[in-house]
C-alpha cells in the first residue's frame, strides 16, 4: 500500500428520488433533500459497515448493491477491483428501503460514483463519462427515472432517440415543496411491477400524454394551479394504489389541507404531495393523521428539490463527517 493513500477517504452523498411524477411513467423523476452517504476508507481490510435505515438487514458482503455497482463501473473501465488498494466501506442510509424514494437507485449511483472517484486517483485515463455512468445505472436499475435525478439532481426527463438514452432538465419551481409521506410497510418494486398490465387502451394512452403535457406546462410556465384537480395517471397508479391501504384517504386529506396534488412516489408506498411552502407542514400533519386513522404508522417529511451532479470527494479521514472507525 502506498503511503499516499494512508488516512484518505472517498465519499459521495446521493439524494432520494421520486420517480414517475404521476403520468411520467419510467421517464420522469426528481431529486429530494434526503440522502444516503457512502464512504470508502483507504488502507483498510475489506469490510462493510451499515448505519441508519435497514442497517440490520442489508448485506455486508460483496453482494451489497453498492459493491456490485462499484465493480460494474470498474469493469466497464477495464480495471479490476483487485488491482486497487484495499478499502473498507461505510454506508449511512437515511432513505427508507422499498419505500418508493429511490433507495436502490441511491445505492447503484453511489457505487458508480465511488468507482469513478477511485478511477480519478488510480487510473485517470479510464474515468467514465456522465453518460456512461447513466447507461450503467439504467442497466442495473432497469429504467432511468430514479437513477438520472440521483446522478444529475433536480427534475429530469429521460428518453431514447437515435442518439440513444438522453436526459434533459425539468424545471421545478422554487415555490414548490414536496411532502413525502411514507407508511410503515415496505413495497418492493418487483411486486409493484407485477400488477401492471401488458397493454393499455388507446384512450388511456391519450390521457396520459395529455396529463404529462399538462404537468410540463405547469412546471415550466410556472402555473402550479394547473396541477389542481389531481395529476391523473392511467398507466401505473390505479393498479399500484391497490397495494397501498389508505392511499385514497391520505390523498384526500392532503388536498383538503391545501396540496396542489398527490402522486405515488415511484412504485410506492410513499405518497408525494405537491405543495406551497406555507401549507406543507399542515399537509404533512394531515397525511400522517389519515394514515394513523387507518391503523398504519407514517413518517412525513417536507422536502425541497436538490440540484447539482452527484460527485465523489476525496478527503483526509479526520475531516470526513462520517465516522469510519467502526469498519
UniProtKB/TrEMBL annotation:
Belongs to the GHMP kinase family. Homoserine kinase subfamily. GO terms for molecular function: ATP binding; homoserine kinase activity. It catalyses: L-homoserine + ATP = O-phospho-L-homoserine + ADP + H(+). One of its GO terms (cellular component) is cytoplasm. InterPro entries: GHMP_kinase_C_dom, GHMP_kinase_C_sf, GHMP_kinase_N_dom, GHMP_knse_ATP-bd_CS, Homoserine_kinase, Ribosomal_Su5_D2-typ_SF, Ribsml_uS5_D2-typ_fold_subgr. It holds the Pfam family GHMP_kinases_C. Pathway: Amino-acid biosynthesis; L-threonine biosynthesis; L-threonine from L-aspartate: step 4/5. HAMAP family: Homoser_kinase. Keywords: Amino-acid biosynthesis, ATP-binding, Cytoplasm, Kinase, Nucleotide-binding, Threonine biosynthesis, Transferase. Catalyzes the ATP-dependent phosphorylation of L-homoserine to L-homoserine phosphate. It comes from the Bacteria. Residues 68-154 form the GHMP kinase N-terminal domain. ATP binds at residues 96-106. Residues 218-291 form the GHMP kinase C-terminal domain. This is Homoserine kinase. It is found in: Cytoplasm. Its EC number is 2.7.1.39. It is an enzyme of class 2 (transferase). One of its GO terms (biological process) is threonine biosynthetic process.
